[in-house]
Amino acid sequence: MKKINWINIRLLLIMALMIFMYSFSGIKNKNREVQKIKIVFNANDYPFLNEKIVNNLLIQNFESTSKLTKDKLDLNTLENLLNTNKYVDNSEVFCSIDGQLTATIKQKKPVIRVINEAGSYYLDSKGAKIPLSENFTPRVPIFYGKIEANEQEPLTRLFDYIEKDEVLKHSIIDLKKTQKKNIIFSVRDYDYKVIFGNESNIEKKFKNYEAFLQFAAKSEKIKSYKTINLIFTDQVVCTK
Questions:
Q1: Cβ proximity of 105 and 44 under 8 Å
Q2: pLDDT of residue 32
């Protein structure tokens, strides 16, 4: 008579029990109700959105979060829902074992506000439009005028350069384009107008302007200038 190998039987029973427990815990985890929704914003973002707005976006397809179980959650759908919001640059949604639904959100960052006859909106560094918000008004330079489709990319590069420069973004108040396609901007500390020209040689022109400021700010003459012309990249032309 063949001897029964009880060791192998015990191992099989243990494995079967482990598989059962794992399956049971998986089913229990799927059936766990969402207990809480946590919204995490990027610390450096402008507060266009708040927790109440995002909560409404997340639960708009559900009658009650207390009856919402994890197996009914489609995290990709929730992320796509958040990403369609015009203030959201990127989002990530995940659910923890204890039933907490967390949404981390990075909001779009405006670099300019555009005002024209059609209305007003912001542009971010990618050239995407951002609508005005009732919750927050960022302090950014204003561009007056219509931006044509072929102008958006070069103008966005100009606006983004200004936003990334601490001196420029705090000193430039507004910009506009003349009929000759020259960009002119006003500054906060002086009454003159700066004739920037077109969107070419952005870095060179602003380097020239910063060098001019370092030199001219030492004299009272800077207050008598009416225009500062940066069109010529090898010199700065001032008129009184």
A1: no
A2: 53
- Please provide the DSSP assignment of the chain as one string: -PPP-HHHHHHHHHHHHHHHHHHHHHHHHHTPBP-EEEEEE-TTS--S--HHHHHHHHHTT-S-GGG-BGGG--HHHHHHHHHTSTTEEEEEEEE-TTSEEEEEEEE--EEEEEEETTEEEEEETTS-EE---SS------EEES---HHHHHHHHHHHHHHHH-HHHHHHEEEEEE-TTS-EEEEESS-S-EEEEESSSSHHHHHHHHHHHHHHHTTSGGGGG-SEEE--STT--EEE-
**Chain segment 146-181, per-residue pLDDT in tens:** 999 999 999 999 999 999 999 999 999 999 999 889
- Residue 12 structure tokens: 């099989």
Q: Which residue has the higher pLDDT, 37 or 144?
A: 144
Set out the domains of the chain in order of their start, with CATH numbers. 36-107 (3.10.20.310), 110-239 (3.40.50.11690)
